[in-house]
Design a protein that fits this description.
It is a single chain. This protein is mostly helical. It has one domain. Helix content is 69%, strand content 2%. Strands 1-2 form a two-stranded parallel sheet. α2 packs across α4 and α3 runs antiparallel to α4.
Length: 182
């Protein structure tokens, strides 16, 4: 199966934007990210605070690498593997915490004061996103991108961003009222 270069470029741009936003979110408030990460790790039975700094830096480095691979012309397969694998890892981490009853855990997916607890819907969302990211690795029909293609890529990336944001907001609104994170 071959994918048109405009579609491949759109997938790469949307994936880069998703990871760049997540990366910005983490760097904007590193202490909050470390707190959420520590709560996730408790679900795995890891309570050693000394591990959080290096683990947070490793996650940040992985997300930076995903963004770089998405924008690097020869990075399609690397981008697909890293992005898809990272999203599956995040889904797995949420799933483990759900199974262990740690459903009050903030997923770390939203900006500002909005909290979003882990849920099966978020696990499904990440698995769907991982499939879309994996599609970056599909062979591409290379051709010159025309101005209409570039406009289509920009608008499709914007539409994907708005759709993701709207879907995520609906998941937050649909969430039953719960107490604080354990």
């Amino acid at each position: 199966m071959f994918v048109d270069s405009a579609i491949s470029t759109t997938l790469r741009a949307a994936t880069a934007l998703l990871f760049a936003a997540g990366l910005t979110h983490k760097l904007w408030n590193l202490s909050a990210f470390r707190l959420v990460l520590g709560q996730y790790m408790r679900g795995f039975g890891v309570v050693e605070p000394r591990l959080l700094g290096p683990l947070a830096l490793a996650i940040i480095a992985i997300e930076m690498t995903v963004v770089a691979a998405c924008v690097w012309p020869g990075g399609g397969v690397a981008a697909a593997v890293l992005a898809s694998g990272t999203l599956v890892l995040y889904a797995f981490a949420m799933g483990v915490n759900i199974v262990r009853g740690n459903t009050l855990l903030d997923c770390g997916c939203t900006w500002g004061d909005t909290r979003q607890h882990v849920s099966g819907a978020l696990v499904a969302r990440n698995l769907l996103l991982s499939l879309l990211a994996a599609a970056i690795a599909l062979p591409t029909i290379e051709r010159e991108l025309l101005p209409i293609d570039i406009a289509s890529i920009v608008l499709a990336t914007l539409a994907a961003t708005l759709l993701y944001t709207a879907a995520n907001s609906l998941l937050v609104l649909a969430e039953p009222a719960r107490g604080n994170v354990r």
